[in-house]
C-alpha cells in the first residue's frame, strides 16, 4: 500500500524547528480550499465598519450645524430687537416730549455747587437772607448785586445748595435766550414754559422742597454789556405777568452798574439784595479755612475785606513780602481809580458840564467828617446814579459804589476813601 503523502507532509512539521519549516512549506490542498472562505469572511467585516462610521459622522455634523445655525439666528434676532429698542429710545429722547422729560429730570436733581465744597464756604448772613427770600417768594424778580469780588455768586450758589428745581444760566451776550433753549434742548419759549410748569408740579409734591416754584438764576458777568433789556422783559414775564408768578427769576449782577440797567417794571416789581464785602469776622473765618489762622490780620491789612482779593492772595501767597507787595499795589490802584474818577467823570447838562466825580468825592468825604459816614444820596451830589455807574463800568474805574438798597453813593473801600482824601488835600494846597 502506497504511503499517504499528506501524512508525510504533516510529519515533516512535527519536531524541533517544525514551525520554521512549516512556514517554508507550500499550503496543502485542504488549506487552499479553506482560504477563499476565510478571506471573504475577513473582508466582509471592515466593509461593514467603513459603511457605519461615515453615516454616524455625517449625522453628527448635520446636527451640530443645525445647532450653530439656530444659535446664530437667535443671536441675530436678539441683536435686531436690541437695535430696534435703541432706535426707538433714541427717537423718543430726540422728540419734544423726550427732551422735555429729560429737562425736568435735570432740573429736579438737587443743586450741588461744583466750585467750592460746603465746608470751605463761610456761612454769611447774606446767604440766609437769600434763602429767606426763596422760601417766602410769591412774585417778582430778585436782583442780587454788590461790589465786584464781594462774593455774590458764591452766596447765591450756596443758598441754592441741595435745592431741586433750579437752573443757573450765564448771560454772555444778546443771544443768551437762544443759548438757554439750546442748553436745555428745547425748541423755544413754549417748551420752556411747559418745562417750568412740569417742574412746579413736581416741587409741589416734594414736602422737603424749600421753594414750590422753579428758580432760574441769570448770572451776568462784569464783561456782559448786551442783552439786559431782554433780561428785564424776560424776568418780568416769568415772575410777574404772563406766567402768573410761575418762576422765581434771580438776577445775579456783577456790579451795581449792571444791576441798574435791569428794569422789570420799576422798583415795586423787583427785590434788591446787596452783598457787602466780608465783615472782619467773616474774613477771619475764610482765612482760617484756607490755612491762615495765625496771620489772618496781615492778610486783611494788605488786601482789605474783599472776598476775591483775599482768595487770590491765599492762592498766590509766597511769604510776608508778598503781602507787603500786594498792599502797595492795591493802594496804587485805589489812588489811580480815585484820581481818574475825580478828573474825568463829567456829565454834560443843557449848557454846562458838571464835574460829577469831584462833586461825589467831596460829598462823601464831608459825610465822613460831619455826618454818619454811611454815604450820600442823589440829592447831595446832583448826579444821576445810573449814568455814573455806567460811566464807571465803561471805564473800568470803580472808586465808589451806588448801594442799590440804601440808595446812596459810598466809597468802594476804605482804601479808596483814603486815596480820595489825599487827592482833595493836594488840590486844596
Write up what this structure looks like:
This protein is α/β, with parallel strands linked by helices and 429 residues long. Among the domains are: 118-275, Rossmann fold, CATH 3.40.50; 278-317; 331-428, no CATH class. Helices cover 58% and strands 10% of the residues. It is built from 17 helices and nine strands. The strands form three sheets. A five-stranded parallel beta sheet has the order 2-3-4-1-5, sandwiched between helices. The protein has a two-stranded antiparallel ribbon with strand order 6-7. Strand 3 (215-220), helix 9 and strand 4 form a beta-alpha-beta unit. The longest helix is centred in the N-terminal third of the chain and has 66 residues, at 29-94. The chain is elongated, with a radius of gyration of 47 Å. Mean pLDDT is 85; it is low at 5-15 and 19-24.
Annotate the secondary structure layout.
Layout: H1 5-11, H2 18-24, H3 29-94, H4 96-108, H5 125-136, E1 141-146, H6 152-160, E2 166-170, H7 176-184, H8 189-204, E3 215-220, H9 228-239, E4 248-253, H10 256-260, E5 270-275, H11 280-289, H12 296-303, H13 307-316, H14 320-344, E6 347-348, E7 353-354, H15 356-370, H16 385-395, E8 400-403, E9 408-411, H17 414-428
Parallel strand pairs: 1-4, 1-5, 2-3, 3-4
Antiparallel strand pairs: 6-7, 8-9
Which strand order do you get reading across the main beta sheet?
A: 2-3-4-1-5
Task: Name the poorly predicted regions.
Answer: 5-15, 19-24
Total number of helices: 17
Approximate strand percentage: 5-15%
Secondary structure: number of strands: 9
**CATH fold descriptor of the domain at 118-275:** Rossmann fold
The first-level CATH class name of the domain at 118-275: Alpha Beta
Element-by-element helix/strand order: HHHHHEHEHHEHEHEHHHHEEHHEEH
The overall pLDDT, averaged over residues, is 85
**CATH architecture heading of the domain at 118-275:** 3-Layer(aba) Sandwich
Helix content: 55-70%
Distance between the termini: 180 Å
Shape: elongated
Over all CA atoms, what is the radius of gyration? 47 Å
**Structure class:** alpha/beta
The profile of the biggest β sheet is: 5 strands, parallel
Biased composition (Basic and acidic residues): 32-47
Region (Disordered): 1-49
Amino acid at each position: 500500500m502506497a504511503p499517504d503523502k499528506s501524512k508525510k507532509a504533516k510529519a515533516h512539521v512535527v519536531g524541533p524547528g517544525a514551525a520554521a519549516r512549516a512556514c517554508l512549506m507550500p499550503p496543502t490542498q485542504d488549506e487552499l480550499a479553506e482560504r477563499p472562505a476565510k478571506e471573504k469572511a475577513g473582508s466582509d467585516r471592515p466593509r461593514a465598519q467603513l459603511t457605519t462610521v461615515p453615516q454616524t459622522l455625517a449625522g453628527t455634523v448635520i446636527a451640530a450645524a443645525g445647532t450653530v445655525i439656530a444659535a446664530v439666528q437667535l443671536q441675530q434676532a436678539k441683536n435686531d430687537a436690541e437695535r430696534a429698542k435703541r432706535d426707538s429710545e433714541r427717537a423718543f429722547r430726540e422728540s419734544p416730549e423726550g427732551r422735555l422729560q429729560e429737562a425736568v429730570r435735570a432740573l429736579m436733581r438737587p443743586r450741588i455747587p461744583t466750585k467750592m465744597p460746603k465746608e470751605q464756604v463761610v456761612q454769611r448772613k447774606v446767604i440766609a437772607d437769600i434763602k429767606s427770600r426763596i422760601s417766602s417768594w410769591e412774585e417778582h424778580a430778585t436782583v442780587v448785586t454788590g461790589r465786584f469780588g464781594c462774593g455774590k455768586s458764591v452766596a447765591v450758589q450756596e443758598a441754592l445748595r441741595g435745592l431741586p428745581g433750579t437752573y443757573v444760566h450765564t448771560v454772555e451776550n444778546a443771544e443768551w435766550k437762544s443759548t438757554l433753549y439750546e442748553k436745555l434742548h428745547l425748541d423755544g419759549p413754549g417748551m420752556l414754559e411747559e418745562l417750568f410748569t412740569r417742574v412746579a408740579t413736581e416741587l409741589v409734591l416734594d414736602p422737603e422742597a424749600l421753594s414750590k416754584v422753579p428758580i432760574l438764576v441769570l448770572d451776568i458777568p462784569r464783561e456782559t454789556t448786551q442783552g439786559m433789556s431782554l433780561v428785564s422783559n424776560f424776568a418780568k414775564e416769568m415772575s410777574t405777568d404772563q406766567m402768573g408768578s410761575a418762576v422765581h427769576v434771580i438776577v445775579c449782577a456783577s456790579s451795581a452798574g449792571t444791576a441798574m440797567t435791569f428794569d422789570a417794571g420799576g422798583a415795586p416789581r423787583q427785590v434788591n439784595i446787596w452783598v457787602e464785602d466780608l465783615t472782619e469776622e467773616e474774613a477771619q473765618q475764610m482765612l482760617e479755612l484756607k490755612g491762615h489762622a495765625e496771620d489772618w490780620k496781615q492778610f486783611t491789612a494788605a488786601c482789605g475785606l474783599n472776598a476775591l482779593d483775599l482768595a487770590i492772595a491765599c492762592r498766590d501767597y509766597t511769604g510776608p513780602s508778598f503781602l507787603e507787595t500786594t498792599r502797595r499795589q492795591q493802594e496804587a490802584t485805589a489812588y489811580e481809580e480815585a484820581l481818574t474818577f475825580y478828573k474825568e467823570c463829567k456829565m454834560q447838562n443843557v449848557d454846562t458840564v458838571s464835574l460829577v466825580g469831584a462833586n461825589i468825592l467831596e460829598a462823601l468825604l464831608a459825610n465822613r467828617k460831619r455826618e454818619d459816614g454811611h454815604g450820600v444820596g442823589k440829592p447831595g451830589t446832583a448826579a444821576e446814579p445810573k449814568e455814573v455807574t455806567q460811566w464807571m463800568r465803561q471805564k473800568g474805574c470803580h472808586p465808589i459804589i451806588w448801594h442799590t438798597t440804601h440808595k446812596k453813593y459810598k466809597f468802594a473801600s476804605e482804601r479808596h476813601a483814603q486815596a480820595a482824601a489825599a487827592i482833595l488835600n493836594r488840590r486844596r494846597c
